[in-house]
Amino acid sequence: MTVNIKVIKDSYVRPTTPPATSAGSSPPRVELAGVDVLFNRMNLRVVYFFPAPLSPHVLRSSLSKVLDKYPILGGRQRKEGKKTHYIELNGKGVLVRQQLATVKGGDKGKGGGGRDG
């Protein structure tokens, strides 16, 4: 089986409403616990495959609404001094990479959703 992947578009999806801040103040932030910092290197790179035709606009619009309810998902991790780690709720959003995957040969469309197929 051969899989070819072509990047179509990279874009940042932001919340529909920016986080509330006072004039001249820093964005809101959420302090991280020690366990959060300890497991910091466990990044999750999530890949979803959807059969065509899926509207990328609908996906980005829905994600934008989710970021309104859960702004921490679109925040940025920051460090202040040696011990203070936090997520800055700056409304910068999340990177969405739209790609086209073409599969040739093999058993496409069959099997489970896990690594072992």
Describe the structure.
There is one protein chain. With 117 residues, this protein is α+β, with helices and mostly antiparallel strands. The chain has a single domain (2-104), classed as Chloramphenicol Acetyltransferase (2-Layer Sandwich), CATH 3.30.559. It is built from 2 helices and 5 strands. It has helices at 34-38, 56-69; strands spanning 2-13, 29-31, 76-80, 84-88, 94-104. The strands form 2 sheets. It has a 3-stranded antiparallel sheet with strand order 2-4-3, with no helix packed on it. A hairpin with a 3-residue loop joins strand 3 (76-80) and strand 4. The protein is flat. 7% of the residues are buried. This is Transferase. One of its GO terms (molecular function) is transferase activity. InterPro entries: CAT-like_dom_sf (IPR023213).
Largest sheet: 3 strands, antiparallel
Number of helices: 2
SSE order: EEHHEEE
Number of domains: 1
Helical coverage, percent range: 10-25%
- In the sheet with the most strands, the strands line up as 2-4-3
- Rg over CA atoms, rounded to whole Å, is 18 Å
Number of strands: 5
CATH class: Alpha Beta
Beta strand %: 25-35%
Silhouette:
flat
Distance between the termini: 13 Å
For the record, what is the CATH homologous superfamily label?
Chloramphenicol acetyltransferase-like domain
CATH architecture: 2-Layer Sandwich
Low-confidence stretches: 111-117
Average pLDDT confidence is 81
Protein name: Transferase
Pfam families: Transferase
Keywords: Transferase
Organism: Nannochloropsis gaditana
